[in-house]
What we know:
alpha/beta, Spore Coat Polysaccharide Biosynthesis Protein SpsA, Chain A, 9-stranded mixed β-sheet, two-stranded antiparallel sheet
Amino acid sequence: MPNTLPISAIVPTRNRSIPLTKTLQSLAQQSVQPVEMIVVDGSTDDQTKNVCDLQIPGLLTTIKYYRATEIGAASQRNQAILFASQNVIWLMDDDILLEPDCLLRLWSALQSDPRIGGVNAMITNQRYLPPGFISRNLFYFLHGSYEKSYAGKCIGPGLNLLPEDDPTLPEIVPVEWLNTTCTLYRKDVLPQPLFSSNFIGYSLMEDVTLSLMVGKNWKLVNARTARIFHDSQPGDHKNNLTVLAKMSLVNRFFVMTQILERHKPSDYWKLIVLQLFEIAACLQSKQGWLSLPSVIAGKLSGTLEIISK
């Protein structure tokens, strides 16, 4: 019989009742479960509410359902955390499938050291791969030094790299940033509000910003054996390539200058090189070529916004 832990899970969602159902069914199979889950829903219908009202076999977690007052991943999480009653916050996406004992291993990692402020799970289908010749040289340029592995690091103008799924590594691995896909935080280390108001819509880089802020005073780690599959879903917020390209630049500039406090001319040059690299990456496929005009338009729009401010 699973036990509950003093954790408040918070889940933003919008028009994705089927993936959320699968996530809840996955949670019901865990050896431990959070006491509560706060779901903030921006859906245009009642399907998600109906899912939250279901009696899912094995699910001990109390689901608290709220309608979103503002649409967007960051703003919905800001709303959700106001209703959280527990001292540990579990940031979750609505489309993850938890492997056995995932939450137990996250919890154990967080409890292993009182100096750990946050811990995330290993995403089995989104992982760090050793860089090739071009990427390795780019990382060297951005970071300013050679590393055997750049996994889990946030280098240069805020380029965040995933943790490494290497069985030779220990179960708990220090990292420099955490995602919001499946992460535990101690509530008292989190800023208020959770995310700045400049993160809207898809809210690119909001996870990097939050974790870097926490990481200034607390340890961040990856629990390598706490594993999930991220069944990432399409959505309207991902379809506008111009908006995403602009957001990638503007939000990364925010992280570089406001969070990492990197203001040297060399930092700006590194940001420019990274943007050019992203544009050049579009040239590797037919689909990339088709998206190139939108990406360039987004980068130019983002540049103008940065200059105007």
